[in-house]
């Protein structure tokens, strides 16, 4: 049985902590990421429909796990900074605790104020759910 602080290959996470910490600090210090960490293995993943139809596959980039960890740390740090500086107050989708419902409530509140003031208002709603599936990507797999 593998202990929860061990990886599936039996390596204890403490063994990785120090070298990864050093790499993360050096990456921050020099504003660079190791070249191999930027590489991803692009793999088609079946989504739905007939497997013979290439349109039913989505491309997924499989990347090195430590780079994913560093990416998550950076994302959380940047989002925390932006929220503390109130730079992304109107964003809802990608922030924790915010969703379509909070977006709708904020929109409704703004429209209610404008209408109560007797001003005209227009709204345009765009559904981008499938937007990235329709973009043509010229991706070469090495």
Describe the fold and architecture.
The protein is mainly alpha-helical and 142 residues long. It has three domains: 1-32, no CATH class; 39-88, no CATH class; 90-121. The chain contains four helices and two strands, in the order αββααα. The protein has helices at 13-30, 65-84, 100-116, 131-134, and strands spanning 40-46, 57-63. The chain has a two-stranded antiparallel sheet with strand order 1-2. 0% of the residues are buried. This is Rna-directed dna polymerase from mobile element jockey-like.
**Hey, roughly how much beta strand do the residues contain?**
5-15%
Radius of gyration from the CA trace? 22 Å
How many domains in all? 3
Output mean pLDDT. 75
**Helix and strand element order:** HEEHHH
Write out the strand line-up for the largest beta sheet, numbering strands in chain order: 1-2
Organism: Willisornis vidua
Protein name: Rna-directed dna polymerase from mobile element jockey-like
Name the features.
flat; mainly alpha; 142 residues; 3 domains; 10% strand; two-stranded antiparallel ribbon; Rna-directed dna polymerase from mobile element jockey-like; single chain
Short description:
The protein is mostly helical and 142 residues long.
